[in-house]
Design a protein that fits this description.
By secondary structure, this protein is α+β, with helices and mostly antiparallel strands. The protein has 2 helices and 12 strands. It is elongated, with a radius of gyration of 31 Å.
């Protein structure tokens, strides 16, 4: 089959046109992707912050998060007087959680303490240390000179928790008022804005 020079030139021109169109499409797509990446690079943190603020505001409005101000030093050095906290009522509390609970029977508004023991646990305090189910409890959150002097021994009842403050020498906690019913817990501390922003 004979192919003329004109047909060859025409085919070459068509191929060049198709290649040019393809390159233009690729360049256009690349430009779009660059614009997208540039947009998210420049505005991503702002958008993320706006979403967070909106979610946080909605959580506050619906009561998922609740603000609390610390009015004591019984959790020092973990928490400070006048720290601004946000608590969440999860209903699923565990060892080491810092919680706020209603203490109307103590003639105080609310108290903030740390969960040391759960229902069925045996707690003993001797020689300046806390023992949970026969084993000494490691408490890295305590200050270097803090000891737990008061002696006691108890088994936590169903539906209750045993709470202690981190500043043991001044804390009024389960050593004084006993175990605390879980249904009096208002929530777990999840966020501190002041004096030092912290997620728990």
């Amino acid at each position: 089959m004979h192919v003329s020079d004109e047909e060859i030139k025409l085919n070459e021109e068509n191929m060049k046109q198709e290649e040019t169109l393809l390159n233009e499409e690729i360049a256009e797509e690349t430009a779009k992707e660059t614009v997208k990446r540039s947009f998210w690079k420049e505005n991503g943190s702002t958008i993320a912050m706006a979403v967070f603020v909106a979610f946080f505001a909605l959580s506050l409005f619906t009561g998922l998060w609740k603000p609390v101000v610390v009015r004591q030093t019984s959790m020092y050095p973990t928490l400070h007087d006048r720290d601004y906290l946000f608590i969440v009522r999860t209903g699923d509390y565990t060892y080491g959680d810092i919680v706020v609970f209603n203490s109307a029977e103590l003639r105080q508004d609310n108290l903030v303490k740390r969960i040391i023991a759960l229902p069925g646990d045996h707690v003993a305090i001797r020689g300046g240390s806390v023992y949970l189910n026969g084993e000494e409890l490691p408490e890295e959150y305590l200050g270097p000179t803090v000891t737990t002097d008061d002696f006691m021994e108890t088994t936590v009842s169903d539906g209750c928790v045993f709470l202690l403050g981190d500043n043991r020498s001044v804390s009024i906690d389960s050593r004084a008022f006993g175990e605390v019913p879980m249904d009096t817990i208002l929530g777990e501390v999840k966020l501190r804005l002041f004096h030092k922003p912290t997620l728990f």
